[in-house]
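Practice problem 4.
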């Protein structure tokens, strides 16, 4: 594994940018969701959540879903092996084929256990796989099923899929950097079980099928097998997190950020970008922080030492967990308010050997970590003995990180937050039988934080679209 960047590599990436006459920017009203490159590596497509497709360099436009009614937002794009077409997939499993990409079926209109997050095509252009965030695989056309993580316990949600060049296997990657190999896909290493500065956002395979790259939200690159390291954005200041990666032949790669920024490394060329500056659900500036004043105005949280002293670590953990949009922050903070009053050192009130069967594994910290099994699971992730050192879980060092771990690793609560589905967030935290009063109170706080961002940042939020139950 290699994750480093020299000045020379960064300079090389900068020099790869073509002249202004070659590059062209365009504006989109919906956030970009993925990037795919042409066979020559001299162009690429960018897909947006509304199904819009934007072509750069020698990438030809073959059609899109832009301006058409979708049942769910588009989440990924995959190019055909010829580079003369592409597929889009939506969160509900809908598939849209353009150019020489063949339409071979979809999960649209069917019940899914988890949203679809990625797509990969076969070399023949006559098939493809969809992957859901729970690791479920759906195979269509000549794409064969080689296995999945569906129905199995994941430490973190799946974020992407990459196929082998033979079309006889595939890799899945989770947000904690875990890699799962199926068919003729070989395992070359992963970041699973290791500390990340930001969640992994995508995976792309080398042309030989003997290696792959992972990209994290901070732009960090992890190279395995015969995948060479050409540079990264790790350690650099980004306006918005990186959301995807695509390999360029065997000698470079492109990454795309949530604002449409494109970063080219190795032999990859820059040919333009989409500029996203929308409002609803968009990410906030990278240096935006939760403040005591914001908590007091939006949620009525009193300004105490237990609140203010925890804010530096809370903001850092939120950045690492990509809890970075009005909707995500609103869902996260309204949950922490109910659990701990947004106090990092909170200890469950009234938890004694006589009153609680799970004593001494009482609720602690921002998210009120409870039960011995959860202490052990968190300890395994952070490589700490929380079972025997329980007070560490409500320290400034670990309280916010454990809340982030719960939010993005053991669960994928950013996704329902993006859909303004606070009811689903609450049920994930408090159980499927959460009382109506709990759902209502949590949803009210959710709306209050959204209103705060509307009043202070001009973010347009349709409160009528919020799902509370």
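Answer key:
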């Amino acid at each position: 594994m290699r994750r480093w960047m020299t000045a020379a590599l960064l300079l090389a990436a900068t020099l790869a940018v073509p002249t202004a006459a070659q590059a062209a920017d365009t504006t989109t009203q919906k956030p970009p969701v993925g990037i795919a490159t042409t066979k020559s590596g001299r162009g690429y497509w960018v897909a947006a959540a509304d199904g819009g497709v934007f072509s750069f360099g020698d990438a030809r436009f073959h059609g899109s879903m832009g301006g058409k009614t979708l049942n769910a937002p588009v989440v990924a794009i995959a190019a055909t092996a010829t580079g003369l077409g592409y597929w889009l997939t939506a969160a509900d499993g809908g598939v849209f084929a353009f150019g020489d990409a063949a339409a071979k079926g979809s999960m649209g209109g069917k019940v899914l256990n988890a949203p679809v997050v990625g797509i990969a095509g076969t070399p023949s252009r006559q098939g493809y796989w969809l992957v859901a965030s729970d690791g479920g695989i759906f195979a269509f056309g000549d794409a064969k099923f080689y296995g999945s993580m569906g129905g199995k316990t994941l430490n973190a949600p799946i974020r992407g899929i990459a196929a082998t060049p033979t079309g006889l296997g595939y890799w899945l990657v989770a947000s904690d950097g875990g890699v799962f190999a199926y068919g003729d896909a070989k395992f070359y290493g992963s970041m699973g079980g290791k500390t990340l500065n930001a969640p992994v956002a995508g995976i792309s395979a080398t042309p030989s099928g003997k290696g792959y790259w992972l990209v994290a939200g901070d732009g960090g690159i992890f190279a395995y097998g015969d995948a060479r390291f050409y540079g990264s954005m790790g350690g650099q200041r980004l306006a918005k997190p990186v959301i995807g990666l695509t390999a360029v032949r065997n000698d470079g790669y492109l990454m795309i950020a949530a604002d449409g920024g494109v970063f080219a490394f190795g032999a990859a060329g820059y040919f333009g970008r989409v500029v996203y500056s929308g409002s609803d659900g968009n990410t906030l500036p990278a240096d935006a922080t939760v403040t005591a004043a914001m908590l007091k105005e939006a949620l009525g949280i009193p300004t105490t030492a237990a609140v203010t002293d925890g804010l530096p670590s809370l903001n850092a953990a939120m950045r690492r967990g990509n809890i970075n949009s009005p909707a995500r922050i609103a869902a996260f903070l309204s949950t922490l308010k109910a659990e701990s009053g947004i106090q990092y050192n909170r200890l469950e009130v009234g938890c004694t050997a006589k009153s609680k069967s799970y004593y001494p594994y009482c609720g602690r910290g921002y998210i009120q970590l409870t039960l011995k099994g959860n202490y052990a699971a968190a300890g395994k992730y952070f490589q700490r003995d929380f079972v025997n050192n329980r007070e560490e879980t409500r320290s400034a060092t670990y309280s916010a990180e454990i809340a982030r771990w719960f939010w993005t690793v053991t669960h994928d609560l950013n996704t329902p937050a993006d859909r303004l589905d606070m009811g689903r967030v609450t049920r994930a935290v408090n159980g499927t039988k959460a009382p109506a009063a709990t759902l209502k109170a949590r949803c009210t706080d959710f709306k209050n934080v959204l209103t705060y961002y509307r009043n202070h940042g001009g973010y347009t939020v349709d409160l009528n679209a919020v799902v509370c139950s």
